[in-house]
Amino acid sequence: MGLHPEQTTRTHRYSEAFTADARGTLGHQPASPQYKDWAGTPAPSAYAWSPDWAVGTTSGLGQAGLSITGTATMISIGGEFRSVNNGQFEGIVRFSTAPPGGAKDKPRLSGDKWTGAAAPSPAGAAGVTVTIPANWDRDDLTLTYELRRAGTSTPVATTTADATWWKRPQITLVDATAPRGALQEYTVVAKDADGNTATSAALSATATAPDSTPPTPATTDDPITIVARESGKAVGVSGTASPAVQQPVSGSTSQEWTVVPKANGKFQLKNEATGACLAVSLSAKVLAGHAQVLQWTCADQAHFLWSLKDLGNGYSQLVASHSGQCLTLLGGNTADGANYIQNECTATPSTFSQFTLPAAA
């Protein structure tokens, strides 16, 4: 199916689930040309759902489930097994999409089985940068990641990402407010849509201070226009609480943004037409695996704050304070109405996250 790879040592999953409609494409046939290569053909996508089976040994079949039946919200599997998901189920078990009391399956990795790295932020930036492979969950594709510093009651950075057990992108979280010069300890918490959580192993690093006051856009009373290098079009909106989308530069106030200075060189970008601020969504609203950028009622929260990274030659990146990721044109789409997301600032092509910030006409 062009999805998860063969594992070494080989691991039998025994039961899997797929979407009923085509949500992806087939990968390359590894045994081609012996078998026809249907790569690129629309195909269902696999869920990460795969129960833990303790297979029976009496018959020697080694198959776990031998028959399956179900209704809209329930399936029953019968076969030769001694337990499922470490529970006392022998020979027959049921699975529900709406279990009593709500879904309890949490992200699969925690503690020493889920660890990453913490390091002082790169030269010119403040704080601590934490990187860690994404977690995964059997009943949620999208997870929220919270960076927690020891001694604080709320997350110091937050982001969202899609992942499966066979595709775990790197998660980057930046604590730009860490006290400088002191060793800080962190954990990353993965949270699913039902509030179930898993916590990583502890990570430590000493925070750095920025080399100098970070650059900011012009902070006069005049608003700016944010123009994408890839398309030459402006970041605009079409109403309060709406996504940030690409629009032909027109001089409309829906494309004008006032720079509101905040502490530590950060700033908010307030839309002239709506009075709302540019922000990164913390909900499950994800586009191509990345959190969507929208406008929302202004608030003094990290996902409303931005910093400027000057790339030279008149181009800059807008860096989200809560995640350390950059405002990015989704897929480099140059069409009107294309969405903006946050993505790794080093992602390629780099022009997708580069902008000019001229004064509004």
Q: Determine the structural class based on helices, strands and strand pairing.
A: mainly beta
| CATH-scheme architecture of the largest domain | Trefoil
Weakly predicted, low-confidence segments: none
What is the end-to-end distance? 52 Å
Rg computed from alpha carbons, rounded to a whole number of angstroms: 24 Å
Number of strands: 29
Give helix % range: under 10%
How does this model look, in words?
There is one protein chain. By secondary structure, the chain is mainly beta. Helix content is 0%, strand content 39%. It is built from no helices and 29 strands.
Write the layout of secondary structure elements.
Blueprint: E1 18-25, E2 42-46, E3 53-55, E4 64-70, E5 74-84, E6 92-96, E7 117-120, E8 128-133, E9 142-149, E10 157-162, E11 170-175, E12 183-191, E13 197-199, E14 203-206, E15 224-225, E16 227-228, E17 234-236, E18 245-247, E19 256-261, E20 267-271, E21 277-280, E22 286-287, E23 290-291, E24 293-296, E25 306-312, E26 315-320, E27 326-329, E28 340-343, E29 355-356
Antiparallel strand pairs: 1-2, 3-5, 4-5, 5-6, 7-8, 8-11, 9-10, 9-12, 12-13, 12-14, 15-19, 16-29, 17-18, 19-20, 21-24, 22-23, 25-26, 27-28
Keywords:
single chain; about 350 residues; mainly beta; Immunoglobulin-like; Trefoil (Acidic Fibroblast Growth Factor, subunit A)
In a nutshell, what does this entry contain?
With 361 residues, this protein is mainly beta. The protein has three domains: 18-96, no CATH class; 117-206, Immunoglobulin-like (Sandwich), CATH 2.60.40; 224-356, Trefoil (Trefoil (Acidic Fibroblast Growth Factor, subunit A)), CATH 2.80.10.
